[in-house]
Amino acid sequence: MPGFHAAIRCTDKDDDNAVGAGMADRDNDGPAPGAHANRLVLTDRRQTTENQASTNDLHADTGSTVIQARDISGGVHVDSPPMPALPRPHQAPPAAAIIGRDAILRDITAAAAPDGSGKPKILVLHGPPGVGKTSAVLNWVFQHAELFPDGVLFADFHDFDSERPASCEEIFDGFLRGLGLSSLQIPAVGDAQAALFRSLTIERQMLILLDNVGSADRVRAFLTAGSSTHLITSRNRLNGLIVRHAANAIAIPFLDDTDAVAVLTDSMEGTRSATEAKAIADLATLCGNLPLALRIAASQLRENGSVSVAEHVEHLRAVGEVTGLSTDSDEASRLAAVFSWSYRTLRDDAARVFRAICNQPGRDISRDAVSAATELPPAAVSTALHELIDGNLIQSQLSNRYSAHDPLRGYGRDESRSAVHMEDSTATLARLVHWYVGTAANANEFMTPGRVERQDVPLHTVGARQFRAFDDALKWLDAERGNFVDIIRSAHAIGDFASAAVLPNLLWGYFNLTKHWPDWISCNDAGLVAARDRGDRRSEAYLLTSQGVALRNLRMNDRAQECHLDAEQILEELEEFIGLAYARQNRANVLTDIGDFDTALQCFNSALNQVDAAGGDP
User: Fold this and answer.
1) What separation in angstroms does the CA of 523 have from each of 463, 526, 529, 543?
2) What is the pLDDT of residues 317-358, one digit of tens each?
3) Cys-Cys with 287: which of 114, 293, 518, 526 at CB 3.0–4.6 Å?
4) Where do runs of H (alpha helix) occur along 463-536?
5) CA torsion angle for 306, 311, 313, 319 (degrees, to 10)?
6) 152-156/121-126 β-pairing
7) What is the Cα–Cα distance from 97 to 228, expressed in whole angstroms?
C-alpha cells in the first residue's frame, strides 16, 4: 500500500496463512505471485483495496488499520514508526509594514501581552472598513510572537467580504490540525470540536487571532479558559464580549494628516517629486486619511506615471472618490466593494438612516432631524443609530449629533442617489429642508419677538422642533449654524425655492444677535439666488435688507447702501410699506455712519411715514 509502512510479524507456525515481513510495503495493485487467495490486506481511512478479485478482500473505509486473514493463531504485532513532531503553530499570514500606528501597537501590548495571571485575555480591535485593523494586529503579532511559547492560531471569519463566511467547523478543523491532530482525531460536530479545542488549550499559552468577525456570538465558542490571548478584529464594536466576557476594546482611528501623507509618499515609492507636496496633501484629504483609500490611490499613480498627482485629484473629484478609488484586479481593493460588505449587513431601518446621514447636506445631523427626514419614529431612529455606531459606519459627537467620515459618506451618498433609492432620497431631503424651515421659524419667535410675519410662504412648523425658552432656541441655532447655508443650497437644488428663500430670512434675528458675519452673508447670498430664480421679489427685498445690515456691521458701507436702495425700490413697487420702512431705516443707519446726517434724517422721517401708511403697526 503506497505511503503505509508497517512491519508485521506473524508468530504462527502454520505456513498456510503465514504472512511474511514487509508484505505491507507492497503496492496493492494485485496479489503477489504465488500468494494465497486469503491474503492479508491493510488499509487506512484514506485508502481502500483496489483489487476485487478475492471475495475476502476488504473494501470499506474502516478509519484504522485492518488485518484480514483466514485463520490467525499466535501473536500478530503491527508496529508503526512514530509521526514526526509538528512545529509550533504560527498560522498568522504576513503583513505589510504600517505607518502611524505606533500608539495603537503600544495599546495592544498593554492589553494583550501575557501578565502571568494565568487568566485569558480578550481584546477587540474595531474600526471602519479599510482603516487597517488586520494590518495593525498582524504587525503586532510578528513583533511579539515570542510572548506565546505554544504558538499562534489564525482564522479569517470572512464575515465582511464577498466570500462565504467561514463555518465554526472549518475554523476548528484548521485550529485542531495546527495543534497536531490528524483527521482521524478531529470530531465532525462543532460542539465536540469546541470541547476538544478547549481541552487542548487549557494548559497552553497561545495567541488566537480571530479576524473579520461579525458578531460576539460568532467567537464565543473559540474563547478558552487557559492563559491564552484572543485578538479579535471587527468592523463592529462587539459590545457583547465587553459586557459578558470582560473584553477590552481598542478603536482603530483614521490617520492624522501627517501620517496620511507619509503613507502616500511611502506607497508611491519615491516616484513623485517634492514639488507635488501640496497635491499629495490634497489627495490624502480626498481619501479621508483612510489607509486603504490611500494605498489604492498610490497604486493608481504608480501604474500611471504620466499622470500628475494634481491631475489624479481632479479626476477623483470629477468621478467621486469612492468610484474612482478602485483597482480592476482585486475586489478587496475596490473601495465601494469594501464598504458594501458592511452596508449589506444593516437592517432596513439602519440602512435608511445611514443613507439619510450621508446624503444630508450639512456637516452633521441631529437625531430629531434624522427622524423627520426618514419618517421613522424616534425609538427606531435611536436603535438604527446605535447599530451604525457599533458598526463604525458613523460617528457620534456631543449633543446627539451624528456624521459619517469621508469617504464612507461618499459611499452612502452614492448609494442614496442610486436608481434604487433616488426617489426616496429626494423625498427625504425635502422633508429635511421643511423640518429646518419649521424649526427655524419656531426658534425665531424667541430671537425676534417683534418680527414681521411672512404670510406668503409655507413654514412647515407641523412636526418641527418646539422650544421652551430663548436659551433652548439659541442652543439649537448655534448647533446648526454650520449647516444652514448647505440646507439653503440643497433646497434650491431640489427646486424648493420658497424654502431656500425664506430660511435665511428666518435667521436674520439670530445672526444679528450673534454676529457670525460670514455665515450670515453666505446664507443671504444663497437665499437671493433662489429668490431671483423663483421670481420672488418680496423675499429678494427682505434678503437685500438683511444683507445690507450684515455689510454695514463689517463697515462695507457702499455695498450696504446699494442693498438697501435695491430693497427699497422693490418694496415700493410691491407697496410693502412695513418692509420699506425697515429698509429705509437701515439705509439711514449707514448714512449716519458715513456722516451724511441730513440724508439720514430724511430717511428716518420717511421710514416713520411708511409705518403710518401701513396703519402705524411696525
Assistant:
1) 24, 5, 10, 9
2) 998 888 888 876 667 778 888 999 999 999 999 999 999 999
3) 293
4) 470-480, 484-493, 497-506, 508-514, 517-534
5) -100
6) unpaired
7) 26
Compute the distance between CA of residue 546 and CA of residue 583 in angstroms, rounded to an integer: 9
Strand duo 365-366 + 401-403: pairing = antiparallel
pLDDT in tens, 423-466: 888 999 999 999 999 999 999 999 988 766 666 556 676 689 99
Looking at per-residue pLDDT, the higher value among 274 and 256 belongs to 256
User: Residues 67-77, buried b or exposed e (16+ Cβ, 10 A)?
Assistant: bbbeeeeeeee
Pairing of strands 395-397, 401-403: antiparallel
Contact between 52 and 59 (Cβ < 8 Å): yes
C-alpha cell, 507: 435667521
Has residue 120 got a pLDDT over 50?
A: yes
CA distance 418 to 410: 12
Whole-angstrom distance, CA of residue 168 vs CA of residue 173: 8
Look at residues 432, 463, 424, 284 and name the one whose alpha carbon lies nearest to residue 366.
Answer: 432
For residue 8, the Cα-to-chain-centroid distance in whole angstroms is 63
Q: Kindly report the backbone phi and psi dihedral angles of residue 325, in degrees, each rounded to the nearest multiple of 5, phi listed first.
A: -90, 85
How many angstroms separate the CA atoms of 27 and 2, rounded?
6
Q: What is the DSSP letter of 394?
A: S
Q: Is the pLDDT of residue 583 over 70?
A: yes
